[in-house]
Amino acid sequence: MFRRNAPIRPDLKQQAEYFGFEFSTIDGEVYWDESAYYQFTLAQIENDIEDPTNELEQMCLQAVEKVVNDEYWLTQFAIPEDFWSLIKRSWQQKEPSLYGRMDFSYHGKGPAKLLEYNADTPTSIYEAAFFQWMWLEQQVDRAVLPRQADQFNSIQERLINRFIELNLKHQLSFCYSEGSLEDKGTVSYLQDCAYQAGIATARFPIEEIGVDNKGQLLDPEDTPINHLFKLYPWEDLFKDEFAKHIITTHTRFIEPEWKAILSNKALLPLLWQMFPNHPNLLPAYFANKVGDGLDNGYVQKPIFGREGANITWHHPSKGRVHSEGCYGEEGYIVQALAPLPIFDGNHTLIGSWLVNHQSCGLTIREDSSPITQDTSRFIPHIILG
Amino acid sequence: MIMDSLAGFVPFLLYFALGYVLILGFIFIYTLVTPHCEWTLMKQNNRTAAVAFAGAFLGFTLPVASAAINSVSIIDFAIWGVIACVMQLITFFAVKIYMPKITERINKDEISSRLYDLLGGTMKRTSKLKLTLMLGAGFGLTGCGESDESALLFKDVDDCEQWGVERLECEVQYQEALANHLVEAPKYTSESNCESDFGFDQCERDNNSIWRPIMAGFMIGLVAEAVDEALDYAKKKKRKKYAYFGGSSYGGSKPLYRSKDDFFNFRNSNNQLIGSINNRGTVMVKKSKVKFTSKPKSVSRSRGGFGSRASSRSYGG
């Protein structure tokens, strides 16, 4: 695993415009950063990322099975009681999942350590699946990269195949939360994939959803919504004013309700309890009941948290790093510290994509801080050797 | 002369037969030794298996052909044939060390379109991708996929007649729009909800306790040529436009509404902007705004109950 510098494509700006990448810079800062790339060997990708991701996914599905059938765990996961039966039903009926992203601490040697699982509302899929792919194709064509350079990336192909498999008979509506260009771009990209799979689609902000007097969710044209992809977390849907309508509605959701369990940080202590000392797991506990394995530092994370907010990083010698945010009222978990590797002064986080429970691609984010936040830059990768 | 040429016939047959045996032997051993089952996979249309096998096959036949040309005797040829077979098998296992999952990947039919390496040239990335809806302005489907349609907008039957259509035909079109209005108009549970969208006194009640906006006008969809012809007739005061409201040029008659916030424009029942209420004659509108199936709306009680925790932060994780 190396970090190498590379020339930026001279027409990057036009490329981003043409391919609808509106958030290639965020607030004037570079977000998509192709001035460097990471290089992996095929063995690193297949043995250290792909296989562990697939194995962890199976472990996670066992964890869901455990949680939905156990009120103790549902309480520990801070899921409101009103929605327990809904989650259980969605799991028992095998409501299909589309995608997810596991975040790892990995430095090229030894087992990758699972930091968390973004199973409900992962972003950066457009960059990883499409723009990164396009970058490699063009850099190979321009002879910046050798012809045998490859990439761990069958994400888009699998997304389209998954949409075909879902075999939806009705329109699939894609919802995002107004105000974030990144979320809108992510949703537009997934809509594009669904369109390529031959599904009728619509896209609108989640704020525009209406409810009729029978408790059915309506799109902006007042037509009942059959299938809804929502880039909006379940834990927030459970608290919104319309939460009670989620129970009555016929709308089917992607990601389904049971994903509320996997996107929850309480998953980490549960996995550690179910699979102690698994090479890809870090010791993790609920903050009020810690155990062994935290002597070399630990990270405290809110049960519901996004984009690196409200995280406290305790290092035995380097002290404490804290990130601000508005999460944490439901409690915290602690997880043994697996410091992100540093390449040229950057902390590097590996995101491993799953589509239809299959590992199929990579997102690499870099940050100057040891806590990766939503301002971290996206760096492309290649496989060579 | 002819006999001289035929003298080579027997050796040719010998070499040909031995070459054939060598190749069959190689195929037999190769398919036996590789962990994947070539025949089954190829019958399943597995391209990767077929390409890898064809590569190995070529990799064997080329040295065999070369041995046939250069060997001094048939024994010599046989020996070199066996050596070529062994070399090809070694190559397979050498590649397997480099790409341990080659068998798995051949089984899964992961193939590179580039075929940069005939034997097991598989890639971890997809060979072809495209975008459709997301492409920049002017390239996407929104810009070029949908044709414009012309439509006639009228406030009422009088308006229609004054423009030059026979009154009877105007009545027919108005009645059709009204029938669609009863089906597709937005619905509200209270008059005040309805008025908050359509303005004071702009709503009516149906038989139930449901409110809907009044129909503020109607729109007759036609293809442009038909409208032009109709206009010509109108100018010449030949009252024959009746004929042009039928056949394939006719796109139906739809209700129009005027919203409180945008009172001087007509909108269709899907709240799509059609054109100014002061239009006379034809306007060009997207086909989907004129030709759509009337379907009943649910009663919209409220909106905005989701997303309250948004506050413009990203939800991605």
User: In this structure, how is the largest beta sheet of chain B organized?
Assistant: 6 strands, antiparallel
Helix content of chain B: 40-55%
Q: Beta-strand level of the residues of chain B, as a percent range?
A: 15-25%
Q: N-to-C SSE series of chain B?
A: HHHHHHHEHHEHEEEHEEEEHE
Shape verdict of chain A: globular
Q: Largest interface by residue count?
A: A-B, 76 and 45 residues
| Number of distinct helices of chain B | 12
| Unreliable segments of 5+ consecutive residues of chain B | 112-120, 137-145
Question: How does this model look, in words?
Answer:
The complex is a heterodimer of chains A (385) and B (317). Helices cover 30% and strands 25% of the residues of chain A. With 385 residues, chain A is α+β, with helices and mostly antiparallel strands. In chain A, strands 5, 6, 18, 19, 20 and 21 form a six-stranded antiparallel β-sheet that branches. The longest helix of chain A has 27 residues, at 42-68. With 317 residues, chain B is α+β, with helices and mostly antiparallel strands. Chain B is 45% helix and 16% strand. Chain B is built from twelve helices and ten strands. Chain B has helices at residues 2-6, 9-33, 38-43, 47-70, 74-98, 102-107, 141-144, 157-163, 167-184, 191-198, 224-235, 287-290; strands spanning 148-154, 187-188, 203-205, 211-213, 217-222, 250-259, 262-267, 273-276, 282-286, 299-303. In chain B, the strands form three sheets. In chain B, strands 8-7-6-5-1-9 form a six-stranded antiparallel β-sheet. Chain B is elongated, with a radius of gyration of 38 Å. Residues 112-120 and 137-145 of chain B have low confidence and may be disordered. β9 (210-212) of chain A pairs antiparallel with β10 of chain B.
